[in-house]
Amino acid sequence: MDKSLVWIFFSALLINNFTLSYFLGLCPFFGVSGRIATALRLGLATIFVMVITSLCAWLLNTFVLPYAPYLRLISFIVVIASTVQFVEMAIKKLSPGLFRALGIFLPLITTNCAILGLALFQTSKGYGLLAGLVYAVGAGAGFTLALVLMAGLREEAELAKVPAIIRGTALNLIIAGLLSLAFMGFAGLFSSSA
Amino acid sequence: MSAKGHDSGDAAPKGLVLRSGPHLASGMDTPTLMRDVIIALLPLVVAAGYHFGAPALLVLLTATVGSMLTEWLFRRGEGTLLDFSALLTGLILGLTLPPALPLWMALVGALAAVGLGKLAFGGLGFNLFNPALVGRAFLQAAFPTALTTWRPAGRPFFEIPASTFAPPLLSVRAPDALTTATPLSRMKFDHKATDLSSLMWGSVAGSLGETSGLLIIIGGLFLAARRAFDVRIPIAILLSVAALSGAFYLAGPDKYPDPLFMLSSGGLLFGAVYMATDPVTSPLAPRGAWIFGAGIGVLVVLIRLFGGLPEGVMYAILLMNAASPLIERVSQPRPFGRAREGKKDAAS
After folding, report:
1. CB < 8 Å to A183, chain B
2. How far apart are CA B246 and CA B259, in angstroms?
């Protein structure tokens, strides 16, 4: 039990990284990875939303959806949207600077497919409450890790004499691809011992 | 040694030359550095030919010519071919490939290495990842079987396996009976160790340049004596691998390989000396170099002992290349005369 929780965490963090292996949540991945500080904070906000979503998804799965399975998608989306609203209000109140820096990408966490993906994966893998929470923290931390690494690389690439034809999105896609290539090294990690 | 800096002022008055620092010239410029590394690699090329015969030399030639061709194709008339960097990238890429690799794949790897790994970022000095490793990882993702098919060492020199001249993009692979396992996969999947002397001499299966441990160590000492790289990085890699795998070995000697085997097998020595030390993709500050090397060591041990792959040096270096800007940021040395963080009052 203990060991499998560790495995769930590292699996979501590195091996099946939502961004670099499943290619989920790419809009904020490219949108907010321009600066390391902003990337880190968006990552933390995403972890928070993921944990709440995981908790609510477990509640829904346990108490509501057995009676009304057709409500799954719509109820998940409602939960995510309201969590994001809550985070938005909290950040606006606590850190107006960050609120401006995140801009449109904060409400866009709502439509971040990584979060809906988390709720759906958690359901299809049959994780319980604790496993689901660990999975959410791992997935969120993995998203944050990818985002911060990407931000660091992009800040470095800003100083480079990138050919005009590749500058911008094309270069970012190339960097993301190379990063994903590097993450392939984690394939199969801990699978024999878990 | 990177291409940054060194702009002579165009708008300065006549007779006055404005230059930005550094003002002390060490005599070590990019072509000299590249040439030193190439000299240190030549014994490995000879060893590859000795152990793996003509097909190995063909792979090396293809990768090197492919890299230079790519550089020439995208950078015609800029003279960047003459700084030897494309040649070096091709040589290192070739030395990380298996001996019987189809030549067209080596060419694709060279194209990916120089095109995607280097020129897309603006050329020498701007690449975020080690170009040779980008090419290698690209090939590993695209052709996993070919990249893990190992021809044994010590075959007749002129014996060319069918796979070498395999036509591109066709999957008709002639059955090649002459394959074997590398010491690392033998250890991982069969728990069989390989003795140290053959690991040092190089008569084991593996990528072209990674098998002769002794020659790599000699090349590394030569480069260290020439001050061609930051010795902290290879030292940190070797120390962290030794410490971590030593701890695992003490905890379970029958389950985990001993540290000496971990250090001398696979691409660890080659990666530590020739790839992790690339000054463009590793942190420059001393503290950063230690962190960078130790991170590579830890990742190598993790991937080798617990991962699905027998070897993880390539991925470990690529991952730390990715983390390098972040490491650089936290490891900036304190400028002389400036107060430590948290003690700002003392200075003012």
Report:
1. 319
2. 5
* Facing residue for A153 by CB, picked from B128, B306, B316: B128
Tell me the nearest-neighbour CA distance from A165 into chain B, angstroms.
9
Return the CATH number at B115.
1.10.3430
Tokens of A99: 């609120």
- pLDDT (tens digit, 9 = 90+) per residue, A129-170? 999 999 999 999 999 999 999 999 999 998 888 888 888 889
- Give the span between the Cα atoms of A55 and A130, in whole angstroms: 9
Q: Is residue B341 part of a domain?
A: no
Largest CA distance in chain A: 59
pLDDT-based confidence at residue B50 (cuts at 50, 70, 90):
very high
**Contact B285/B333 with Cβ under 8 angstroms?**
yes
Q: Is B303 close to A186, i.e. CB distance below 8 A? A: yes
User: In the structure, what pLDDT confidence band is assigned to residue B173 with cuts at 50, 70 and 90?
Assistant: low
Q: Among B273, B208, B202, which residue's Cα sits nearest to residue B60?
A: B208
C-alpha dihedral, B18 to B21 to B26 to B31, nearest 10°: -80
Position A2 confidence tier, pLDDT thresholds 50, 70, 90: low
Cis peptide bond upstream of B22, omega within 30: yes
Rounded to whole angstroms, the Cα distance separating A102 from B318 reads 29
**A13 lies in a domain?**
no
A36, A175, A189 member nearest B307 (Cβ)? A189
Nearest residue of A to residue B304, measured between CA atoms: A189
Q: Cα B235 to the chain's mean position, in Å?
A: 15
Q: What is the domain extent for residue A63?
A: 25-185
SS3 call for B305: helix
A18 residue type, one letter: F
Residue A88 tokens read as 């938005």
Longest dimension (CA), chain B: 75
Q: Is residue A14 part of a domain?
A: no
Number of domains into which chain A is organized: 1
> Would you say residue A32 lies in a domain?
yes
0.90 surpassed by complex ipTM? no
Does A17 reside within a domain? no
- Domain range for residue B255? 30-169+178-330
Flag whether B18 is in a domain.
no
Q: Name the β-bridge partners of B150.
A: B180
Q: How many domains does chain B have?
A: 1
